[in-house]
Amino acid sequence: MDKLLNDFSLGLFVWQTLLFLLLLFLLKKFAWKPILDAVDEREKSIESALKGAEEAERRMQALQADNEAAKKEAMIERDAIMKEARDTRDDIISDAKTAASEEGVKIIASAREEIEIQKKAAIAEIRTQVASLSLDIAEKVVRQNLSSDASQKELVNTLLNETKIN
Amino acid sequence: MVGAGLVVIGVGIGIGRIGGSAMDAIARQPEATNKIQTAMLIAAALIEGIGFAALFAVS
Amino acid sequence: MRLKNFAKALILTALTTPVLASSSDTNHSDTDHNEHTVSDQNEAVDTKEEIKSYIMHHLEDTYHFGIWDKAGISFPLPVILFDEGLHVFSSSNFADDHGHHDGIAESNGKHYKIDHAKIYRTDAEGTINYNKPFDFSITKNVMMIIITGLLMLLLFRSLGKSYAANGGISKGVGRFMEPIVLYVRDDIARPNIGEKKYKKYLPFLLTIFFFVWFLNIFGLTPLGVNVTGNIAVTFALALLVFLFTNFTGTKDYWMHLFNPLGNAMPWYGKAVLYIILIPIEILGIFIKPFSLMIRLYANMQAGHIVLMSLVGLIYIFGNMMGGSLSFLLAFAISLIEVLVALLQAYIFTMLAALYFGFAAEEHEHHDEAHAH
User: Fold this and answer.
1) What is the C-alpha to C-alpha distance for residues C236 and A147, in angstroms, rounded to an integer?
2) pLDDT tens-place values along chain C, 372 residues long
3) A4 touches chain B (CB under 8 A)
4) Which residues of chain A have a Cβ shorter than 8 Å from any chain C Cβ?
């Protein structure tokens, strides 16, 4: 302990204190401040760059998801449109078909009606024709034999109805 | 002189125990090596400081 | 990598040895020299006492800057004394014809002489009257502090400037120091002081770390400076830590000192305990920086003594076996000393940061009280 106290040099102590404080002041001003500021700034910029990259990644993913969704939607829409088109086509075709067949049926029916009418008319015509013909024939054949026209006609008609020309 | 020897023995045992315990701790938890080393150095430095103080007092 | 370190250490050790080795060729001894002349020219250093005094001489501060004392290569430094007026003269005034610094220097009618590495006032014949003047000389240690300071200033200023010039990336020699600066910030200051306040203490911690580290390393060079192994230097550093700790202490720091138990106990219980506790706490304020001072001083001093003793052993053995053994030992120790140089700087900074952390602490007492 005595040696320690004996070794102690006041001058060196004073110089050390002064020089150290001076060094501290100068270093703080000219070295530590710029160094620490620069390092801080660099760390901040790295951090913000990382954050930016993360953000970009996130946005990219969002964008990709959006794209995917849009694509899917477009596909669905396309499918819907196609389906609609197909349906419409089918509808048109089937409509046309039914219309055509209905028309055909109608035409056939009307034709048939016409035929019936014509037939009936023809039959009536034939009947009258035949009746008059037969009357003429019969008159010619049996002109003298028959007493009266009226009873003769009645007889012919009954006979014609029984025979049923068809 | 005897006092100085005693001081050195005591400090040696103390620092030895700290080092040994730190080794055990590091073996048990290698992931905490840095923290253990720091704590070990501080503890060793404190003991060493007391040891030196005693050494100067007796010599 | 390992080979490189090995080579470096080898060079270091080789450089340390010639200080002692240079004497062996020119050997004619004057028996009536006092112990100071052991380090002088033309004399072998090979007995136990001579080596011991050589080591002690090496550990002392000197008034001239001896690069290689034995070869007479040394620079004079200014001597500044306050002794009924200012005296400034060159330390070469102490030198006699042989280059020994044990002559009498005369300044403004007063005579001075160096005895046991201190300047004393004498009369014209050189009789020491043990009247010490106030001595503010630029000694070897002061010179070394100035050199280290300038070196640090240049190094870190260039590092600081290189950021702006290079767009935020350091360049040059300082680049090697940048990770260490960041280590001090992230592993010493931040965890010990806390995120909020570490910026206030960081410049001091950085300065003290590099200052101590550089001076420790310079102590291992053949320049033979022993600045951090000087009690006045470590006292100044510890005193600054002490002042900085206590002048920046928060209310909580002082509360912790004078009311360590807080609300854990009623006042009459605390009063009894505090008769013992408060003196211990107050003593602790002084013991902490005191241990800082002693630790650095003793480690550096002891390192130098061990290293030089082992080198000295080579000359005591004086044969191949013992000499090479001592050389290997000295070599191993100098490797360890390189580690110790860094370790002591680290410990000093670490503990200073820890003490600053105590001073800067801010507990949230109110929240705690409500929680209970």
Assistant:
1) 179
2) 444 554 454 444 444 443 333 333 333 333 333 444 444 444 555 677 878 877 777 777 888 787 766 666 777 888 888 877 788 888 777 776 666 677 777 777 777 877 777 787 777 777 777 677 788 888 888 988 999 999 999 999 888 888 888 777 777 777 888 899 999 999 889 888 888 888 889 999 999 999 999 999 998 887 778 888 888 999 999 999 999 999 988 888 888 888 777 777 777 777 888 888 888 888 888 888 888 888 898 888 888 888 888 888 888 887 888 888 888 999 999 999 999 899 899 989 998 998 998 888 877 554 444 444
3) yes
4) 4, 7-17, 19-24, 26-28, 30-36, 38-39, 41-42, 45
Total structural domains in chain B?
1
Which residue, C295, C148, C184, C288, is CA-closest to C234? Answer: C295
Ordered DSSP codes for C221-259 = STT---STTSHHHHHHHHHHHHHHHHHS--HHHHHHHH-
The CA distance from B28 to the nearest CA of chain C, in Å, is 23
Cβ neighbours of A7 (radius 10 Å)? 19
Cβ contact, residue pair A30, C232, below 8 Å: no
Expressed as residue numbers, the domain containing B38 is 2-58
* Residues C288 and C253 sit within 8 Å (Cβ to Cβ): no
Nearest Cα to C182, choosing from C163, C202, C162? C202
Rounded to a whole number, what is the distance in Å from the CA of A50 to chain C's nearest CA?
17
* Reported ipTM: 0.78
First CA to last CA distance, chain C: 58
**Domain extents for chain A?**
28-125
Question: With contacts defined as CB-CB under 8 Å, which chain C residues touch A25?
Answer: none
- State how far the Cα of A76 lies from the Cα of C267, in Å rounded to an integer: 81
**pTM for the model:** 0.72
Q: Tell me the CATH number at B10.
A: 1.20.20.10
- CB-based contact C294 B56, cutoff 8 Å: yes
Tokens 């840095």 belong to residue? B34
Q: Domain ranges for chain C, please list them.
A: 76-135, 140-365
Q: CB–CB of C230 and A9 under 8 A?
A: yes
CA distance C211 to C217: 10
Angle between helices C198-220 and A10-27 (to 10 degrees): 130
